Amino acid sequence: RAELPPAEFERRVLRSAARHHYLRVRLELADGGARPNAAQFKQLVVSALRELHGEVGAALPVDVLTYEEKTLSAILRVISSGLVKLWSALTLLGFYQNRRCAFRVLQTSPFLLALSGNSRELVL
Amino acid sequence: MVRFKNRYVLCEVLSDDPRCRQCIEDRAVGLAVRDAIGRVHGDYGLACCSISFTVKYLNAYTGTVLLRCRKDSYRLLCSALPFVRYLESRAQRYPCALNTLHVGGTIRTCQKFLIQYNRRQLLMLLQNCTNEEERQCIRKSLLSCSLTEEQSQSGDEEDDDGTE
């Protein structure tokens, strides 16, 4: 019997392989009062970036991939180098049109497919 | 932590308006730079750069300004300097621009650079002179400036017995 050559073990570590990061966020707003539509939602995100990180932050390429006005939840896409700036700006945003609000980040991943399942809401 | 490292940014104030010279003061320049950092880098950038930010040296005649900041945030400061568009003091606002000459780790290196830079500028000014009178004027003033030694060092240096 011929012995197969021993399998070579190769390990590759890619630190920042993905170009974009995806975040599933939900905006918590007090009941009553107009809900923002998609354009106003993006304006809110960009204004949060502008407050915390200035014009450089506001110029960060952020995309709103989906937005549901009923639940006020959205999927955002940002370039990987800007994830920290975006997340910190969303955390520190407190007001929308003089009403208190808060951003809750539900999931984040460098792969969009990973946002489709959520093990927190898994019903076994 | 061993020690806090600073970066000293040497820049010069360029302006078309000759009245801008009287507006070059440390408070006015400091406020203008802080405002520019706040606009460009937001609250986070402003707080980062303000940790050890001062105007260390200012020369209104040549328009030379020396700014100090922490080593971790000198890139934020340098990138915000082109956004300073005007200086404001005593309710007067003059348009100007800040030109970065040198970034050094200590005041001494910035001073060495400034001395060399001023020498080269004087040579260039001499070459660009249009008439002979100006040349003579400049030559005379250059030859007449010299270091004056202080007459008396602080003479009374008594040894204090350390009884305090």
Please explain how this structure is put together.
The complex is a heterodimer of chains A (124) and B (164). With 124 residues, chain A is of the alpha+beta class. Helix content of chain A is 24%, strand content 30%. Chain A has one domain (20-108): Ribonuclease P, Pop5 subunit (Alpha-Beta Plaits), CATH 3.30.70. In chain A, strand 4 (95-96) and strand 5 form a beta hairpin. Chain A is elongated. By secondary structure, chain B is an alpha+beta fold. Chain B folds into two domains: 1-105, 2-Layer Sandwich (Alpha-Beta Plaits); 107-148. Chain B is 40% helix and 23% strand. Chain B has helices at 26-49, 74-80, 107-127, 132-144; strands at 6-14, 54-59, 64-70, 86-89, 92-95, 97-104. Chain B is globular. The two termini of chain B are 33 Å apart. At the A-B interface, helix 1 of A face helix 1 of B.
Low-confidence stretches of chain B: 152-164
How far apart the termini of chain B lie comes to 33 Å
How many separate domains make up the residues of chain B? 2
Report low-confidence residues of chain A grouped into runs of 5 or more: none
Quick check: average pLDDT of chain B?
Answer: 86
Shape of chain B: globular
- Biggest sheet of chain B, strands in spatial order? 2-3-1-6
Mean pLDDT of chain A: 90
What is the name of the CATH superfamily of the largest domain in chain B?
Answer: Ribonuclease P, Pop5 subunit
What string, H for helix and E for strand, traces the elements of chain B in order? EHEEHEEEHH
CA radius of gyration of chain B is 20 Å
Quote the distance from N terminus to C terminus of chain A. 48 Å
Protein name (chain A): RPP14 protein
Family (chain A): Belongs to the eukaryotic/archaeal RNase P protein component 2 family.
InterPro entries (chain A): Pop5/Rpp14/Rnp2-like (IPR002759), Rnp2-like_sf (IPR038085)
Keywords (chain A): tRNA processing
